[in-house]
Amino acid sequence: MRAAPALGTDNASARFGPGCGSIPNPVQPAVFLDRDNTLIANDGDLGDPNQVRLMDGVAEGLKRLHDAGYRLIVVTNQGGVARGKYTEDDVDAVHQKIAALVDEAVGRDGLIDRFYYCPYHPQATVAEYRRDHPWRKPHPGMLLQAARDLRIDLAQSWLIGDQDRDVQAGRAAGCRAVLITSDEDSSEHGGATEIAESLHDAVDVILNAPPVRSGHHPRSSNDGEDDTMSMSTASHSPRDAPGDALRQMRQSMQELAEEIRLERMQRGEFTPLTMIAVMFQLLALLLALLGLLQLGQTGAFLHWMVGAGLIQMLVITLLLFESRR
Predict the structure, then answer these.
(1) What is the pTM of this model?
(2) Fewer CB near the last or first residue (10 Å), C or N of the chain?
(3) pLDDT one-digit tens code per residue, 7-57
(4) Is 36 a catalytic residue?
């Protein structure tokens, strides 16, 4: 997958917002935004930029978040591409229209940093898009990719959306999440941190919420599935090194497990190369476990974790090679 400027086209489901410019070095918090019925009114497949209408209060709400220091990133499933209703170029045109309307409303250029979308669907009518994909919500792939691309501090970030799958994707990436709904019972809404009746109310929730303390990572009700590393702005002492290494290992294992799951879903069985990768993965887990048993001895801990990390890299290389066969 690759990213392209807002005025270009690409096959990778990522767009820079107009005027995005260079990526800064320090990590920053972000607010990830669902598109349909969160930013724009749309209950179906929308590929016509002339039909784009911002929902009430959206532009002002985004400006408040931007002024508070949050990067603004749109993450949206676009199964209409997979259903043949419109093309990826049409998606790009819609996103450019959204960005232009927001900028015009607030009198500022480049308020939205980037758009990410997933055109794939497991029951697609267009064969090339017929698959599940790590970017398709409720998977957290778009958020994790944005964190890598833009150096986002996921633990300090939020997601706003109107569907349970939005919340699940945000929580799986390690963010807090606000569900836009008129139903005040949040217990049945995918582990949402908060609920709100509109984007305006969601912005109030975010701006009034206390920051996550350093070293704390939000978890959803599905512990073990969504525990990912976020990039922290805080400096770390040597005592924090084991925790940092462990979070990195957890993130790698989560992403690898997702790739293996999707590979099996598509092929229906393990290939020999995938089986080798799984065996090496088990070895990496064993070395990581041995490292955890040495937490009191930093040198020994790092020795085992470096070994586990090297084997983890081998596993990732094997899977990448297999995916390109």
Answers:
(1) 0.64
(2) C
(3) 222 333 554 433 334 444 578 999 999 999 999 999 989 999 999 999 999
(4) yes
